[in-house]
Amino acid sequence: MKRTGVFVCHCGINIAGTVDVKKVAAELAKHPGVVHAEDYVYMCSDPGQNLISKAIKEKKLDTVVVACCSPTLHETTFRNVAKIAGLNPYRCEIANIREQCSWVHRDRSKATQKAISITRSVVEKVRRNESLEDVSVPVTKRALVIGGGIAGIQASLDIANAGFEVILVERSPSIGGHMSQLSETFPTLDCSQCILTPKMVEVAKHPRIKLMTYSEVQEVSGFVGNFKVKILKKPTYVDPDKCTLCDECTKVCPIVVPNEFDMGLTGRRAIYIPFPQAIPATYTIDEKACPGMFDTAIACGKCADVCKPGAINFDMKPEVVEVDVGAIVVATGYDLYDKSMMAEYGYGKYPDVLDGLQFERLLSASGPTRGRILRPSDKKEPKEVVFIQCAGSRDPELHWPYCSKICCMYTAKHAMLYKHHVHDGQAYIFYIDIRSGGKNYEEFVHRAVEEDGVLYLRGKVSRVFEDNGKLIVWGVDTLTGKQVEIAADMVVLAMAIRPSKGTEELAKKLKIALDKDGFLAEAHPKLRPVESMTSGIFLAGAAQAPKDIPEAVGQASGAAAKAVAILSQERLFHSPTVARVLRNLCTGCAMCVNVCPYEAISLKEGKAVVNEILCEGCGTCSASCLRNAIQVKNLTPYHIQEMIRACLGG
Amino acid sequence: MAEEFEPRIVAFLCKWCSSAGADLAGVSRMEYPPNIIPIQVMCSGSVSPLYIFSALSHGADGVLVSGCHPGDCHYIKGNYYARRRLALVKKLLEYIGLEPQRFQMSWVSATEGIKFTQIVKDLVRELQPLGPQNKLRRKF
Fold first, then answer.
1. Is A642 on the interface with B (CB under 8 A)?
2. What is the pTM of this model?
3. Which of A127, A273, A522, B23 has the most neighbouring CB atoms within 10 Å?
4. What is the pLDDT of residue B2?
């Protein structure tokens, strides 16, 4: 006969306000096998925990049910209480009578009855629980960081500086991300590359960071502490060890394609280095553009002819590298919203309608105009520039409902820098609200208005069209209630921030969730902002939500700290509520083997065998077994049957 | 006026999505009828047809199985198995003459407290006119 103790929490009035907790305790006291039942105002408080501990010892309880809030909140708390009192923690279960009972009902007697039913069913479950010990697994002391922008760089450096190996995977030929494209950064106007490139160099030189550029994550399996990752290393066709960066190859390459680094404002050759400070400092042949690479190979090979060190190798093949890592940081960053979606602003039709990143390139000293603001169409200095904020953001009807967060600040910066370059020019900014929360951000916007005379117009723009060499902007100023028409020389759109291309596919490979807007979903919006729902996988930077550089860096350091917390363990513990095979019932039909999502079940000598380390305890196997020969420990069909019987009172 | 029939419903909720969605309904202080008794399972894929028959034979007037949205299963694909398996159960129950409303499946994510509330309200409203379920109830 079991000796079960039931502890009913009032949670102040959160439970006791709707549920008659005294009655729940009294009814449960009558339940067969229950030798102790009491209620208390806050079970999770110290006195509450002591009360459970005391009852376990004095009444020699062998199983415990705490009827309180959701198990996601205090299951660990109460299982620890049981453990300290000398009970196996898996002999303690939670009956959720707050979130799924008292908080959603008003009728006191019905809610009380429901709380009794829930608690009874959990009592019947816990009575059948066995004592279990956590499954322990060793930890691979190495991290994978996906994405080599500022967030990925920071996370890699922090993990490596804590003493662990890091593999940093970046899909483009250089690390640096969008930050390397920026001119100056708000609110201090630091030169972006000047503060970024030392970190890029540190990554390249770090003895514990293995940098894999032009590479992509192909497949991920395993679990926290023990992930197995396949990484596809795309061929660059240039041997970085031989390349001397003499740049002779680009002078002879006959192919010109749009330059991604300059957001298409300039061209680049098929063999190229993304930007002068690129890390690794080497050239890459774009196989989509190079005529030597087509199936119907046109023999070009001009670059190879002029390459004195013989660094060019057309026979380089894609390579798949397999690595073991203990933790993963995903920092895949953002892209701007597809501008072709905003036809009303004339993007694509008029060359002088730019997006924010293109304007950054115009401002940049390393950009196509060497930092002079010139119109792409006629290379003349624009005297009137209109900036349009929220292009695609805060527009639930047509585009995206969320705020892209960084555009208010960077548009203020753009307008300010424009004035620093073109003293007699005028900048106009159309805005919905100015969101300048952040240290020294509000002061920065004021500086734009007061010192640089930027004209802010509160309202939206309906249309941009060309007339007589000018871009006519039709908008509304909602503060004066008047329509506004500006004949501008250039229009800059602050496009919505979107998760970078390929985020969805990567999330599927990693088995992590996306939020409603397609960004990577954090485990808890407030308390677990850098963790994904999958243990051991952490999030950093704009892949999780639009964010500026300081926030991305802060989150990257947070994700790194979380990864280090795993890597610094010798062994990790895994829930022991995994599947078990009853060998005498198993016929070896292999139905469970086929349905297991983790490939944790195999057949040995004609019977199913479970790998307890791989098993996550989902129970899909048990529902497929015709003989109940495979069951999840402490949640077997027998447990469920008894729970059903108890809650229906039959 | 005669008191309205109060159906008793057993709900198998997966831990990661639907039970979390039901928790969110609680946290957001939404309200739904207390006719539903939740049993938390790890995954909708672990819900054996026997659980449904067992609940009906013990006198449940309705059974709900709720999991993560297809494609969003915490266990990758458990809910796909649930969907296929339970669709057969539903057909079987209808074949033997049980009203189709008595066994339902739904997909409720951890952020869909409102949806969970609505599902319970609709289920109770659909079951009320049917009266007690006696077809599969054990008689002894």
1. no
2. 0.80
3. B23
4. 56
Q: Which residue reads 């065998």 in tokens? A: A609
SS3 category, A343: helix
Quick one: pLDDT at residue A295?
55
Please enumerate in sequence order all residues whose Cβ is within 8 A of that of A199, keeping only pairs 6 or more positions apart, or say none: A150, A153, A154, A157
Residue type at position B4: E
Contact criterion met (CB < 8 Å) for A619 and B60? no
Please report, for chain B, the start and end positions of each structural domain, with discontinuous segments joined by +: 9-130
If residue A640 lies in a helix (H) or strand (E), which one and from where to where? helix A637-648
Residue A365 backbone class (left: φ over 0; alpha: ψ -120 to 50; beta: rest): alpha
Is A386 within 8 Å of A492 (Cβ atoms)?
Answer: yes
Spatial distance between the Cα atoms of A486 and A374, rounded to a whole number of angstroms? 19
CATH code for B9-130?
Answer: 3.40.50
Q: Is the pLDDT of residue A306 over 70?
A: yes
CA distance A580 to A316: 48
Contact list in B for residue A623 (CB cut-off 8 A) is: 45-49, 81-82, 85
Q: Which two tokens stand for residue B106?
A: 């739904």
Cβ contact, residue pair B26, A616, below 8 Å? no
| A191 vs A194: CA distance, rounded Å | 5
Average pLDDT score over residue span A92-110: 97
pLDDT at A457: 97
* A88-A582-A605 Cα angle (round to 5): 130
Minimal CA–CA distance to A236: which of A193, A185, A273, A184?
A273
Question: Is the confidence at residue B31, as pLDDT, over 80?
Answer: yes
Confidence of residue A526 (pLDDT cuts 50, 70, 90): confident
pLDDT tens-digit map of A183-200: 999 999 999 999 999 999
Question: Count of CB atoms within 10 A of residue A260's CB?
Answer: 14
Measuring CA to CA, which residue among A586, A581, A587 is closest to residue A611?
Answer: A581
